[in-house]
Specification:
- The structure is a single chain.
- The chain has six helices and eight strands.
- The chain is α+β, with helices and mostly antiparallel strands.
- Helix 2 packs across helix 3.
- The longest helix has 16 residues.
- The chain is globular and about 50 Å long.
Amino acid sequence: MAAGIATKFLQTVHLACDDQGRITLPSHIRNAMAALETNSIVVGKDHDLFLRGYNEPAFNRIMDKVNESRYSRSDSVSEEEAHEAEEIARFGYAQFAMCQPDKQGRINIPSYIREEVKIFAGTKITILGQGDHIEIWPMATYLEKKQAFDQKVSAGKVNFRKFHENLNK
């Protein structure tokens, strides 16, 4: 399996769902999937009302960690944490679907998942590369969140130095 930057989901792209609710994955995302030797992406609803799309290896790692917490009754996992992991698995995994791009690179995310985050046929969306996953936002919601973040940055309320220091630990 290939490693490095070629396997990461990067960039920000603005586009729209087609009239059937399909989303065309940009070529750089499809190329990252190909570098991972996978032709599908696991897409689901995030609690913050956007969609997350994981490459298969990343989603499998998450599932393994959740299942470890879910079924573990060791000193490292409390009963409360195990119960919470069980609920996350129960209600979270049901909101994910495996999506395979067609020949034009379009994925068909089930409407019950898409529409819960206000992404309908024709909706303008923003796709954000996040390394091992992508985020798919309704464009209006994304622009609101970005504007709020930009205002925090302008007001000096975002500590980039501390963020970068933590990355280098």
